[in-house]
From TrEMBL:
<protein>
    <submittedName>
        <fullName>Integron integrase</fullName>
    </submittedName>
</protein>
<dbReference type="Pfam" id="PF13495">
    <property type="entry name" value="Phage_int_SAM_4"/>
</dbReference>
<feature type="domain" description="Tyr recombinase">
    <location>
        <begin position="110"/>
        <end position="324"/>
    </location>
</feature>
<dbReference type="InterPro" id="IPR002104">
    <property type="entry name" value="Integrase_catalytic"/>
</dbReference>
<dbReference type="GO" id="GO:0003677">
    <property type="term" value="F:DNA binding"/>
</dbReference>
<dbReference type="InterPro" id="IPR004107">
    <property type="entry name" value="Integrase_SAM-like_N"/>
</dbReference>
<keyword id="KW-0229">DNA integration</keyword>
<dbReference type="GO" id="GO:0006310">
    <property type="term" value="P:DNA recombination"/>
</dbReference>
<feature type="domain" description="Core-binding (CB)">
    <location>
        <begin position="9"/>
        <end position="92"/>
    </location>
</feature>
<dbReference type="InterPro" id="IPR010998">
    <property type="entry name" value="Integrase_recombinase_N"/>
</dbReference>
<dbReference type="GO" id="GO:0015074">
    <property type="term" value="P:DNA integration"/>
</dbReference>
<dbReference type="InterPro" id="IPR013762">
    <property type="entry name" value="Integrase-like_cat_sf"/>
</dbReference>
<dbReference type="InterPro" id="IPR011010">
    <property type="entry name" value="DNA_brk_join_enz"/>
</dbReference>
<comment type="similarity">
    <text>Belongs to the 'phage' integrase family.</text>
</comment>
<keyword id="KW-0238">DNA-binding</keyword>
<dbReference type="Pfam" id="PF00589">
    <property type="entry name" value="Phage_integrase"/>
</dbReference>
<dbReference type="InterPro" id="IPR044068">
    <property type="entry name" value="CB"/>
</dbReference>
């Protein structure tokens, strides 16, 4: 990311300046909210001192506090650091002198929770309607929950039999597998979504959230059918940035609650979440003999070592070692 050619307005409060800079660089609203919260916590940690009065030593103290006192994960600590770097470089336009040498949080070595195929079936069986279809897509295509909910109509290709993920984690695009068994269910979902969209158009609405650059070039395209969400929300809502009343995608929290409830109903004691379906997708593909590189591409991992975690899960489940207790006659 390059430095903004327009400095943040000094007439605004600091966090408002941060918000303006992040919107200028097209950060997602979730990242914007997260970064602003980290900056706020940094300021409060140092007794409300202005960041301009602080620098590398204060950043190191804050990051060390997160690792030692709050026991955050390495990824969470890195997220806080990224927020502070953005603050100093792109909002305050201050060069941080010296290397940041905080005590680093230990990287997690936990293996992902994976369901067996039978457990996946039991959880899905205890879901219904749109929740069941979303869960099937999470497992059938290895999607993250927000990738699934943000799917646009144009990105589900029935003819080519693939699903295009636009702007996934790290703002990367990728193609993943299309579950043939969901063809008719997805057609039904699109018929429902189109009926909603046509009704919105008749009532003077029909727009959908649109990537910033495209919105400037083609302001009317956000009413086109292909740009609508596959899983639209039941009600119109006001966009927090533009203030426009439009139809957002289906709610993440609703899916999370439904899946946890279904897992309990299925009698599964493992901690099951939306992401568990993605873990299970990867592990079961490897179990079925697909190579690690193929699975890496489908998941959109930059580093194959991230995908390798699933081989560890697979190997542990295939251990041929017999417990010494099983050989004793007690």
């Amino acid at each position: 990311m390059q430095t903004s050619p327009i400095p943040a307005s000094p007439s605004k409060k600091l966090l408002e300046q941060v918000r303006d800079v992040m919107q200028f660089h097209h950060y997602s609203i979730r990242t914007e909210q997260t970064y602003i919260e980290w900056i706020r916590r940094y300021i409060l940690f140092h007794k409300k001192r202005h960041p301009k009065e602080m620098g590398v030593p204060e950043i190191e103290a804050f990051l060390t506090y997160l690792a030692v006192e709050k026991h955050v994960t390495a990824s969470t600590q890195n997220q806080a650091l990224s927020a502070l770097i953005l603050l100093y470089r792109h909002v305050l336009h201050c060069d941080l002198q010296g290397r940041i040498c905080a005590l680093r949080a230990k990287k997690s070595t936990n293996l992902p929770t994976v369901m067996t195929k039978e457990e996946v079936f039991r959880v899905i069986e205890n879901l219904s309607g749109i929740h069941q279809l979303i869960a099937k897509l999470l497992y059938g295509s290895g999607l993250r929950i927000m990738e699934c909910l943000r799917l646009r109509v144009k990105d589900v290709d029935f003819e080519m039999r693939h699903i295009m993920i636009r702007g996934g984690k790290g703002q990367k695009d990728r193609i993943t597998v299309f579950p043939e068994t969901l063809r008719e269910s997805l057609h039904q979902q699109l018929r429902y979504a189109k009926a909603l969209h046509e009704n919105d158009l008749e009532n003077g609405y029909g727009t959908v959230y649109f990537p910033f650059v495209l919105a400037e070039k083609s302001p009317q395209v956000n009413k086109e059918w292909g740009w609508q969400y596959v899983f639209p929300a039941e009600k119109l809502s006001r966009d927090p940035r533009s203030g426009i009343l439009q139809r957002h995608h289906f709610g993440e929290r609703s899916v999370q609650k439904a899946i946890k409830k279904a897992a309990r109903a299925a009698g599964i004691v493992k901690p099951i979440s939306c992401h568990t379906f993605r873990h299970s997708f990867a592990t079961h593909l490897l179990e079925n003999g697909y190579d690690i590189r193929t699975v890496q591409e489908l998941l959109g991992h930059d580093d194959v070592r991230t995908t390798m975690r699933y081989t560890h899960v697979l190997n542990r489940s295939r251990l041929a070692v017999m417990s010494p207790l099983d050989g004793m006659k007690l």
